[in-house]
Amino acid sequence: QYTQVLNSIVSSLQGGANPYQALEETITGLKNPARDVFIEIIRRNRTGNNYSEAIRTVAEETGWTDLHQLEMAFRLYDKTGSNLVEVCNHLLQSAYDRRADRKYVAATTASIMTTTTVLTILPFFVMAFMRIVAPEFAYPLFNTTGGIIVLCIICAMIFTGNKIAKKMVANLI
User: Fold this and answer.
1) How confident is the model at residue 125 (pLDDT cuts 50, 70, 90)?
2) pLDDT category of residue 173 using cuts at 50, 70 and 90
3) What gap in Å lies between CA 44 and CA 60, rounded to an integer?
4) Exposed (0-12), middle (13-18) or buried (19+): which is 75, by Cβ within 10 Å?
5) What's the CA gap between 151 and 38, in Å, rounded?
6) Which residues contact 64 (CB under 8 A, 6 or more apart)?
7) Distance CA 22, CA 30 (A)
8) 3 and 34 in contact (C-beta within 8 Å)?
9) Going by C-beta distance under 8 Å and a sequence separation of 6 or more, which residues neighbour residue 13?
10) Mean pLDDT of the chain, nearest integer
11) In whole angstroms, what is the distance from residue 98 CA to residue 82 CA?
12) Tens-digit pLDDT profile for residues 40-69
């Protein structure tokens, strides 16, 4: 809903509305929970808080961290008279970029997990294939002490590799 909020604010400001009017007009197009958040921002602004202070306190109370960017934009506007439309356009572009990055990370994560699954199954598939096609060739792997040790090492390496891959994916997200 953050991109919807920014789009609405930018549209209102480009239409000639002041920041207070832009925040009020934003409410009409929003659905809950964003609608309730912005109603609270407007309420606090009406009771004496400036825009940036109202946005900051509501952002902290709701845990909506994206609002801190909007708070910074309104603080810049209050202190320097910056072009709020330009700042909000940059925030909007940043939000779209973050959304695209999240999709890329999700696709990469899915690819990593698929590769991990295939690489986990592959050695066991090869061993089963060897046992069916050339049982005398696979016999030492399953029936001698050295073969069983090698098999255990292979299983341990696969297990360790899966653990490392899952940890990497968890850190990626």
Assistant:
1) very high
2) low
3) 14
4) middle
5) 62
6) 2, 37, 58
7) 13
8) no
9) 19, 22, 84, 85, 88
10) 88
11) 24
12) 999 988 898 888 888 999 999 998 888 888
Q: How far is CA 29 from the centre of its chain?
A: 25
Length of the chain equals 173
Cis peptide before 19 (omega within 30 of 0): no
Which two tokens mark 30? 């929003």
Closest by CA to 91, choosing from 67, 58, 75, is 67
Residue 56: C-alpha distances to residues 30, 92, 108 (Å): 19, 18, 34
- Tens of pLDDT, residue by residue over 78-121, are 888 888 889 888 999 998 998 899 899 889 888 888 988 998 99
H helical segments located in 2-144: 2-14, 19-29, 34-46, 51-62, 67-80, 84-133, 135-143
